[in-house]
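Risk mitigation, structural track. In case the binding assays with flavin mononucleotide fail to produce interpretable data, a predicted complex structure has been prepared as a fallback.
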Amino acid sequence: MTLETRREPAKTRQPVMELIARRWSPKAFGPEVPSGNELASMFEAGRWAPSCFNNQPWRYLVTTRNDPGAFSRALACLTEKNASWVRNAPLLAFQVMRETFEYNGKPNPWSGFDCGLAMAQLIIQAEFMGWSVHVMAGFSRDRVRETFGVPEGFKPLVAFVIGREGDPHSLPPHFMEEETAPRERKELEETVFSDSWGKSLF
Ligand SMILES: Cc1cc2nc3c(=O)[nH]c(=O)nc-3n(C[C@H](O)[C@H](O)[C@H](O)COP(=O)(O)O)c2cc1C
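Fallback model:
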């Protein structure tokens, strides 16, 4: 892939770690499948995330192109729009959340937060190793449950792709536009308050 097809790092207002500025969610991926060791490092990074009562509610279902049957069963769980670009990706996975605390069986309101932290660590580790991750909400939870035998008390939370960033020109034209559009974020003033709601810290 030529350099000019790669995205510029985010134009951050303050200095941040290069990995954070560089991370984004591509839709165009190359065919290379991460090795078992590389995948183990990514999931290891997620494994060491903090979690409420150290409950570690994250579970994963992982399919790759190396098993086309499993990959296409996973693909069939996605919305049509997501499936249309994910079909060319090398790996499709789901993060599944345990809904209760293991120590007392009661509902864990922080499970989603914990899973998000684990995914963030996984994503940054992947980025460090030259891989990109794209998380998706556009899939059928019930279909994941049925297809992969997810037990009661566990909830499919997000789907995600891992792969090498690919050439955006390989995407259908409507995605090409999204893929190359400027990346935007709310200003810190809109989200970080001091001693009263809406009063910016900065
Ligand atoms: C929980 C979650 C759900 C998402 N769902 C989808 C999705 O279904 N399809 C998609 O193309 N991108 C999806 N995204 C990616 C976001 O659109 C993307 O992260 C956001 O636009 C910011 O862009 P960036 O990740 O490139 O910085 C999702 C991201 C998250 C965290």
